[in-house]
Amino acid sequence: MSETTLAARPETGADVSRAPARKAAPRLAVVVLCALLLCAVPLYLEGSWLVIGVLGMATAVGAIGLTLLVGTAGQLSLAHSFFVAVGAYAYAYLAGVPGTSDAQGLGLPSWFAALAAVALAGLAGLAFSPVAARVKGLYLGVASLALVFVGEHVLKNAVPLTGGYNGREVTPLSVFGFELTGDAPDLWVLGVPFGGQERLWYVALAVLAVSVVAAGRIVRGRPGRALQTLRDNPAAAGSMGVSVRAHKAAAFTVSSVFAGAAGVLTALAFGFIVPHYFSLHLAVLYLAMALIGGLGSVPGAVAGGLFVTALPLLLERFSGELGFLAAPGSGGLDAAMFARFVFGALLVLILIAEPGGLAGLWRRLRRTRR
Fold it and tell me: Among residues 140, 165, 217, 331, which one has the fewest Cβ atoms lying within 10 Å of its Cβ?
């Protein structure tokens, strides 16, 4: 063997070790560029657009939790709207100012109330987990419907807690006197007034980023692999030492935590919550988000959540410019009804052409490009 060959080996090894770094550099650059663009959005868009974006990000956080439960763990649930409602109303009650309306409140610091509301949603999921450990498939989906019906009854009749049919106001989120979702104190950035909507944009963006990172680690780590094995072959998972009941309970709890965070963001975005929003219709929409995005895919859940939330709001905003859409309440094809038609057609197309959803379509495009 020549000295030239011996000398070439370290260089070849070094090139191989640097290959992953070269592949990761473009991805990191794209992530940084997207982060900068998203951070600059409040400097250029008006408040109504920011509200649409915040609602989309809040719904995407909840969709991430559902795709972990349905896609990764293989547990069908139609009760996601119930856990979203737990997060929303728990925050409104814990942070509410006592004696200001029919709906009572504890007057706790809003930042503490937000964390406690997310924890309460997780505890609600943990309380339901024994049912998930005993039934599965369609039976679990039907059993979870009971939570939605019970939740609707409680939200409409527990007036001191929820305000009943009339709903209740939501206290802005603040930290040490600085309102993260309000207008106090006055704040200007590059000549742009940063009020409640601009500040809430960054809060929602931070929560979404943390949710994506946390869910990605769960899916790619040992818990995710255990849940996938449990989904595909419970007997094999049990023989490998995976605790079936413990992992099912953990999946429901984690999914409910994401739903609770989505509920808090939704309450802050609306500023006033009513029981009608947290109905079975919302639970079905969440399931549609998971299917459109691709079951088990965290980026797909984000895309599905943003699409399903933003489409009807955008159609409603531009309904006057779309000649074929009728005015709301006129009995014709309005923006909300047209959005439902689009959802239904898209679900059928995905189930037929690409069961993997938007995530599966993206993977197919990447393979074609390669």
Answer: 331
Query: Are the beta carbons of 318 and 119 closer than 8 angstroms?
Result: no
pLDDT for position 5: 45
CB 267 within 8 A of CB 170: yes
Most confident of 31-45, 224-238, 297-311: 297-311
The alpha carbons of the chain give a radius of gyration, in whole angstroms, of: 23
Give the tokens for residue 89: 């109303």
**Element (DSSP H or E) covering residue 192:** strand 192-193
Q: What is the 3-state secondary structure (H, E, C) of 158-188?
A: CHHHHCHHHCEECCCCEECCEECCCCCCCCE
Least confident of 12-26, 76-90, 195-209: 12-26
**Beta-carbon contacts of residue 27 (< 8 Å; ≥ 6 apart):** none
CB 146 within 8 Å of CB 281: no
pTM metric for this prediction? 0.85
Question: At which residue do the structure tokens 């119930």 appear?
Answer: 82
User: Does the structure show a pLDDT above 80 at 228?
Assistant: yes
Residue type (1 letter), 318: F
Cα 350 vs. chain centroid, distance in angstroms?
Answer: 21
Rounded to 10°, the helix 80-95/47-67 angle is 120
Please state, in angstroms and rounded to a whole number, the distance separating the CA atoms of residues 59 and 259: 9
Distance between CA 174 and CA 182 in Å, rounded?
8
Residue 349 half-sphere exposure toward CB, CA atoms < 13 A: 10
